[in-house]
Amino acid sequence: MEAPIITYIGEICEPRLRGTLTSYSNLFVNFGMTSVFVLGTLVDWRHAALICMMLPVLTILALTQVPETPLWLMAQGREEDARKSLQWLRGWVSPQAVQNEVTELKRYAEEAKKKKKIRGYDNPAIVLDENPSNQTSPVKTEKVPETVEVEKPSWMKKMARDAKDFFRPAVLKPFFFIIVFFFISNWTGISSTRPYLIKLIEEFKFPIEPYRASVIFGSIGFCASVMCMATIAWFRKRPIALISVFMCAFSGIGLAFTPSTALSGWACFILFVLLFFFSMYGASGIVWTVMSEIFPYRGRSQASGMAAASSYLITFSATKSFLALKHSLGLHNLFGVYGGISAFGFVFLYFMLPETEGKSLEEIENSYKKKKESQTESSS
């Protein structure tokens, strides 16, 4: 669900609000996890599952009232529908209030769809004169029919076109960046340990009852998401990501070197609180926010879907490998590995993560275009 939701929000938001609104996704993910932790202390797992099952039904009903994104509608040539969608999304405003946005969307959509000019013999409005007089070669004469029926491309041609869009450098460069970012965010130690949280609390000997501690950690994650949403416009995405990954590295390495003393339970608890907070504050949330805006329009749906699928595979591998790695390395040493990955992530993001806060989708797209590709598109 994250990929289409985040992509949708990224397309409908104004640049100044995009970071804040896309962070809502991570906020409600953490709210949902906290709610499940609380339910686990109140009812058995069957009743908790039944309660959770009701929410997707309500979501489906709500989504039927949500319009398509104005950018997609404009790209399909449905300018009036795009205008109405913008009016709805901006709070049922008048057409005049969104006219500037409509004009900008139209220009951006036309740029995104720009292709090479159709050669004369491919143009149904141009035919060859079959009986030229005093001509040594066929002459092209204009024939403008009242209506020109253009055959819709087959699904194979659509797939080939989508693949061509995906394999452009302007898509592949941010795609590989996002994959590495997802790897970093999922290997901070939180995603892999969440299913084993109760056992982990017991093994670290936290001085709090395990089920109560799980609720505390869930609440901390929720508070971190709220803080991210509240501060992303002020601090911007890049500093938040760097600070959070740095603190994840500090916490993970600290857990690896915490000595076994009478106070080690409290020390591990504090370090794990820091790890949980900063992982939820930036490392786990910012990556989805960046993904919503970093891909160009041509190839965005394919790249977002592939990136989200890759994220789930990375999360699966991190979770499934936890027990085996803990058995072979030991719990403290394993968190040292997580801390080392976060340290690598800090260096990687420092050099590779662009600041996208407050920028339009077109500005972000242009920053990832190779110079040669930009020249080719501008001349086509």
TrEMBL record:
Q: Where in the cell is it found?
A: Membrane
Q: Where are the transmembrane segments?
A: 21-42, 48-66, 166-190, 210-233, 240-257, 263-291, 335-353
Q: Which SUPFAM superfamilies match?
A: MFS general substrate transporter (SSF103473)
Q: Listed GO cellular component terms?
A: membrane
- Identify its membrane topology class: Multi-pass membrane protein
Describe the location of the Major facilitator superfamily (MFS) profile domain by residue ranges: 1-357
Q: Which UniProt keywords apply?
A: Membrane, Transmembrane, Transmembrane helix
* InterPro entries listed in its UniProt record: MFS_dom (IPR020846), MFS_sugar_transport-like (IPR005828), MFS_trans_sf (IPR036259), MFS_Trehalose_Transporter (IPR050549)
Major subcellular site: membrane
An example Gene Ontology molecular-function term:
transmembrane transporter activity
Q: Which Gene3D superfamilies match?
A: MFS general substrate transporter like domains
Protein name (Swiss-Prot/TrEMBL): Facilitated trehalose transporter Tret1
State the organism named in the record.
Lygus hesperus (Western plant bug)
Query: What gene is behind this protein?
Result: Tret1_72
